[in-house]
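Help!! Second protein's tokens look totally different from the first
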Amino acid sequence: MNTYITINYVILGVLFAFLLAEAMSAMAFLYDKKSLPNVKKYLDPIWAVVGTFAVFFVVNTEVLYPSIMPNIDYLYVFPILLATLLFIARNMLLVFSEYIWKNSKFSQLLLARVYSLVSFVIVIILLGVFLSIITGLGANASLNSFSFSAFVSNYYSIGFIAGILLIAFGLMFAFYRIKKLKVLSPISTILGLLIFVFSMHGLGLYVNYITYILAAAVAAISVMYLITGKSRREAILVTAFLSVLSINLLNYGKVFGTRSLSSFINNSAVNSAGLIVTIIGGILLTLMLVFFLYMYKRPELETDYQKDYKDEQNPFSNIGIANLYIMPKNNKENGKEHKKRKNRVR
């Protein structure tokens, strides 16, 4: 195995693990509005890390496979530009929901749900591009044009994406410990896994016992959450990372269906410098990842978002129990005093 290609696969695995976390956040906002404070607590540390890993992967790919970039531009320039614009919109919505919503006509929940829809489109676009690059589905033989109709008319490609979204929906319950109809967690996860593995076979992607072991581990997470009500968020992220990495390693060097990724690799001296920069950048991003995992392990204290959300839902939440009794009494007394003063004036 080529060291450069393997490192690039590792970076891609981390990126898609974080994208899975964002997909689960988006689903949680749409599924259960009560999950907003809890999801915001975990989403805010991750959103900048996702963007950083995305840029890191793109730069690393450009250095590693410069000769493949013209083909990528010809084939996927529109979906990549669309995903980039939506990514900017996603960042704006997160900032608005964090700072601006308090003094605007838009509620935090509304902004979070618009963010959810934007995130859904981004995830679907990236999954489609990823699948097309590996299988060559939708790309013509000369790799200079992409047929969207050819891509969507293949029901295995639709099943691949739909299976991942069903898995994300099922894991969402365990990741954010959502109790609303949590029986849907194993149902959605197992159904998504069956569709996903079936679609991989149909697309000609190589699978083996490792694929089935990881699928069983993912299913076990949802089943255990249904039975015990407990889950390990780190286990979900690690399993997602290993799943993406295994797909790439099992189909090692496969690109555009029949071509070898090694034929596009940069063999110049730039690779050595690129490897050094990748290692340094990887260490820094790993430290960010460790910090992110640390954020998950913090005590479940009430955050500012939870307090603000409660205030928005109940504007009288800041009034103490004693004041509920004192204020009416004071109003009556003030009214009597006001009446007496009026009588005295008269």
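Here's the second one for comparison:
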Amino acid sequence: MTAPLDPTLAPPLSEAERRRGRHLAIASHPAGNTFRMVFTQHLPTLALVAIGASELQVGIQNSFVLVFITLQLPTLRAVARVSKRGILLISHAFALMTALPLVFWGSIEGLSGPGPVTVAMASFALVAVGVCIGETVWFPLLRGFVEPERIGRFFGILRTGWHLALILFYSGSQLWLSRHPGDFGPLFGAGWVLGAARTFLIARLPERSERTGERIRVAQLLILLRDPRMRAYLLTVAWGHAVRTTAVPFVIVMLRRVADLSDADVIYTTMAYFTGGLASLYAWGRVVDRAGAVPVLRATVIGQALLIGGLFAFAPGPLAVPLMVTWFFAIAVLASGFGVADTHLLFGLAPPEAPARTLVLGAVAMGITAGSTPIVAGALLDVSLTGEGDLTVYRNFFAILGGLALLALIPLRRLSR
């Protein structure tokens, strides 16, 4: 549902400003998203397993960066009065400050009793708060830089860059952990330095202001739900993201605890996740721009369901690493297509003169759904795992999850029409 242009809002950016914005976004994203990933996904899972965290605690940590997306609702109120670039810089500085204790991982490990898990979880949570608040304005800023017919290609290029950066980072991580098992401090330190470097680039981003002086109310978001396309979009992408974000961390936990892979081996398999994105994102961008988002969403939902459900046949052994490298690569290819199609649809639903409301609604709906499912899954696994037959528990878990993934196809039918 596209609202008419509000004359009180700022005019579009000039072509030169849009070009500068795209260049700065592409340049800053590898450092920024590597910082985000280092302190929110994959590496924190391994670090928590190393200090004895339970499945429930792992599930909670993986939910932080999704559940705290709800903080975008109060942050949205500030968009009508405060610069979006200013909000981004303040939130990023907060994330950097709260990530700093994790750089001294050795000191955290040396704490007694539940201290290591408590301190690590607190720091991971606060970093996620800063990241989520910043993302309130990140996508609205990007919306001002790109025209509708080039959304897919722009995000294909943007995400290809940070996937390449993550491959390089995790290649170094794999080498480091193979020589220094359990020593995560220098890896968190490298991620922190990249986050600090991002600050200097985002400080120069141009901005199409949404400051009107009028308070943005949550009720205005609910009005957007009158559009059946928005409801179908939210149901499809929220559930699709929820299933994948639930599966991936527990695949890592299974490999570490049940298949007895080392930290270095698990990093090696998860590197394939970013390789899959690097190999496919630009192509997905062109496919989505030409074929449309809905066919891509349908194909990637089915593909992800088959891959996740196929883990029912997983067995430890000498082939575990190459098979899981292939699995992570394939799930990343499909997730990349799903993500580009998701963004293409959402940007199409967002009015260019004031996109923040629509983009925040999409993010919050996805965050609540995808943030709650890892917690529920972790609690169920905690109850089910007994030490004997744990592999069977994980196999059944992924088989059920693969079946549940197909539910995203139901609301997608409305978008097809």
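Reply: Different proteins will give different token patterns, so don't panic. Residues 1-7 have pLDDT under 50 and may be disordered.
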